[in-house]
């Protein structure tokens, strides 16, 4: 039985909005409880099996999307652009890395953000911090920063619209492998990675023609399985979207296929861990540099007491300078105890810094180095580097320094659009995929 919302909140849930009108929260929650599920329990089970295969080294997990989705960007171009780059990255990893790829978006629900500080100060004015469109507005005014529970209802509708379009694209022909060239049109042609992609697409096209000529035309060529994920942060929303599966009587969070617990809300005696214990979805937990081997074991025992494969993914985010020291003892402990976890790297959150120009940014080289460190550690220990989760977008933004386009700290101002953390742009995302494919092949 899932504890009721009040019981969870009584555990002192971290990173929750303080709503001025509790009755309005009840109204929003009641509305959400009546809405249809966004995903089916059976799809979550299917994903759990696929993540189990990732944990055994039989496939690679690619998760990507915005740091924070925003309501104003729920439109066809934005969703298509993101999906397109994810499909391109997945094709590169599959073809050049010779491994099937499980595709997951940080999307259709990634609307709430944990923050380091409750407030933000600009020009001497201090207001509540922006906590994602699920909670308050980005605009720096007193009114906009007041948490509004009606936004939770809007999260549902925005997620439904996004997921609907994703399902249409992935099942309706856009994700057909014979579209590999189409995904590359209107790409910056000067980019060496777009050219490299084009060559690879030619090879894939020839291989497909050959397969067709010999009579092989499997369904997997025409459609892809694509899964949604987000950080399950704001408990009234997540609790309201939890339903009992009619097949099994088990509780599932039906707002996304895969939910994760953030680095700031993974306290073993905290409300988020308590809530996640009861879910049947495949779940993730972020693990930062302060985690000890015993912390990780505690998380695994609490979140996966049956030691099921595919149930728990640990998403490590240490920073490029730390991963080679911090990850080995965690992996060794987990291995020694015979605990099943799928290891995934988040090479973004440990590598954030403020540029001289004031922008929150990351270096492409650090992102790459953390992924390389992740592969090095797992290869040295004989364990499985299962996948990566990145913050990226399908647009040509300038939020991360470096990469083939050599964006520098001054170039960040050109097109910096993220409302919280910096994202890889389209070229940087593709570049990363080619470089990670080489790591996979090795
Ligand atoms: O992606 C998330 C951020 O790292 C997190 O929300 C904290 O950001 P902040 O340190 O700017 O608050
Ligand atoms: C906030 C995030 O990460 P973390 O919990 O690892 O800081 C995130 O992935 O959006």
UniProtKB/TrEMBL annotation:
Q: Which reaction does it catalyse?
A: D-erythrose 4-phosphate + phosphoenolpyruvate + H2O = 7-phospho-2-dehydro-3-deoxy-D-arabino-heptonate + phosphate
Keywords associated with the record: Amino-acid biosynthesis, Aromatic amino acid biosynthesis, Transferase
Pathway linked to the protein:
Metabolic intermediate biosynthesis; chorismate biosynthesis; chorismate from D-erythrose 4-phosphate and phosphoenolpyruvate: step 1/7
* EC code(s) of this entry: 2.5.1.54
Q: Name one Pfam family in it.
A: DAHP_synth_2
Q: Does the keyword Transferase apply?
A: yes
Instruction: Say if the entry is tagged with keyword Membrane.
Output: no
Classification via InterPro entries: Aldolase_TIM, DAHP_synth_2
Family note: Belongs to the class-II DAHP synthase family.
Q: Mind telling me which NCBIfam families this protein's record contains?
A: DAHP_synth_II
Protein's recorded name: Phospho-2-dehydro-3-deoxyheptonate aldolase
Q: Which organism is it from?
A: Nocardioides dubius
